[in-house]
Amino acid sequence: MxxxxxxxxxxxxxxxxxxxxxxxxxxxxxxxxxYETDITRKFQLxxxxxxxxEILNKIGEDLNNIEQKLDLxxxxxxxxxxxxxxxxxxxxxxxxxxxxxxxxxxxKEADRETYKVMNECIGGNWSDQNLFNFxxxxxxxxxxxxxxxxxxxxxxxxxxxxxxxxxxKPKEYKQDAWRRLSESVGWRVDGVWIQxxxxxxxxxxxxxxxxxxxxxxxxxxxxxxxxxxxxxx
Length: 233
Known about the structure:
mainly alpha; 2 domains; two-stranded antiparallel ribbon; 2% strand
């Protein structure tokens, strides 16, 4: 966590320096534009200001993203106490890794890590019963991490909410509702199931698109819906 924080701080400091330098560059061009009397040259300077402003805006966006990630790390430090009270010490390591991947917006690796930690929780037995009775502390911790670091865009509870909204019922497989859920979250496009490599591992993905491994691996709908029927989601 400390190394991650230092890396983000270093990136932030570098971006701040670049931002200030770029801003000064634009100010100089604007001053030149003010005193320029040649119409052709003045026109060229106007376009140059526009181009340089686009660069400044991009640096500003990158700087804002880094600031947000640093804020998440501060929040993650608070969660360390929650972890220590909520789960066993040996599991803190597993969930800390998942948390750090989510903080870093590494959605693909976070998706894989989610599968990994869940597989360990149920000993590799992905039965409907095991999913419906998934350990409460573990499933709520995993879900809460996805919710927090995606700004409530991704998570099992988000998928459950959508399933219920499209006519689904807990612990009951309804083909139409399952298809509507899959289409709503982007697992099924134009009547065709997407492959795992086609998943959009980006914050811009459809709401509920992630975690995506259960909707795109060799799981039966009953398996997925058993998990989404969990009373604590």
